[in-house]
Amino acid sequence: MIQRLTSAVYLAAKRGHERVPLDWETRMQIAIGAARGISRIHQANGGKFVHGNIRSSNIFLNPTTSYGCVSDVGLSAVMSPLAAPISRAAGYRAPEVTDTRKATQPSDVYSFGVVLLELLTGKSPIHTTGGDEIMHLVRWVHSVVREEWTAEVFDVELLRYPNIEEEMVEMLQIAMSCVVRVPDQRPKMGEVVKLVEGVRGRDTENRGSTGTSTPQMASTPVPALAAASPPGS
């Protein structure tokens, strides 16, 4: 059974309402699979297709490979164009969408960058601080990195996994490039796929030299994303 993420770092347990934190390997597979799926969507209709509602709850885990699969393609056109300003969904929204009320491929890239930040920080796109102040995840990460406390960004659940610090920093850099404020300065999803695959490819080589086995992700096909294929493709 394909399972929907309750957030980018938690998977709903098969029984009851228990939430199970995802390990780093699975988080990387989610990032690779979802990036490939969104890139495929953007290539459709002559390169003009837009998802419009990228968020963790629209990413499913394939039960066999644990790759992320993208769902709810095209539904943004028949849904309310904007989420409430303080809703969790609003945390995925690119700044320009507030003014234009129109999703674009660059705004999809921004939303995917927020998903990456979820994977890295373990925090929701909109959360409250200790003083009950409402904080947007992108702003919080910017503030922490600006103060050169980058290590404080990462989810404490990840501290149990050895030799992933370099990967986490590289993924953070990719995420930050996706959520820059100016749409034209964001990478294309095809570029994001190469960057994320490159992180895992280099890590495979490094771990292989130490005798630790890690599956080669970059050459493994993503499961068929039926939901990510526009009609007639």
Automatic annotation (TrEMBL):
Single Gene Ontology MF annotation: ATP binding
Pfam family for this entry, one: PK_Tyr_Ser-Thr
Biased segments, Polar residues type: 207-219
Domain Protein kinase: 1-199
InterPro entries, A to Z: At_inactive_RLKs, Kinase-like_dom_sf, Prot_kinase_dom, Ser-Thr/Tyr_kinase_cat_dom
Source organism, top-level taxon: Eukaryota
Region (Disordered): 198-233
PROSITE patterns according to UniProt: PROTEIN_KINASE_DOM
Name of this protein: Protein kinase domain-containing protein
Organism this protein belongs to: Linum trigynum
